[in-house]
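About this split. The held-out portion is used to measure sequence recovery: a designer receives only the structure tokens and must propose an amino acid at every position. Recovery is the fraction of positions where the proposal matches the reference. Here is one held-out target exactly as it appears in the evaluation file.
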């Protein structure tokens, strides 16, 4: 188990193919900073984006959000800023994000 066992890691994935609209530049330069600004005060510690090297998996983007703990995650998703974060998704894709929690083993 890691030393950061209280941290709560949320992954957000976007599924699609080569024809799926996904503006990587907007995502990295505008959306992720919006997420950080909106949720940092609620306990978001870091955010990273990953782009698979091929579209064979059907995954076009992965975002890793590390929160201080599970309570911080819940506070962020319940925050007044969250509707603006969610509405911003339409600026870079038509894909519905898939969110899941990772557990440290």
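Reference sequence for scoring:
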């Amino acid at each position: 188990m890691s030393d950061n066992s209280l941290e709560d890691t949320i992954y957000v994935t976007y599924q699609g193919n080569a024809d799926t609209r996904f503006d990587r530049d907007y995502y990295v330069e505008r959306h992720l900073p919006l997420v950080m600004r909106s949720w940092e005060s609620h306990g978001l510690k870091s955010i990273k984006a990953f782009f698979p090297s091929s579209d064979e998996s059907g995954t076009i983007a992965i975002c890793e959000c590390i929160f201080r703990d599970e309570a911080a995650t819940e506070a962020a998703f319940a925050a007044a800023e969250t509707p603006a974060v969610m509405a911003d998704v339409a600026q870079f894709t038509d894909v519905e994000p898939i969110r899941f929690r990772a557990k440290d083993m």
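Annotator remark: The first strand starts at residue 8 and ends at 15.
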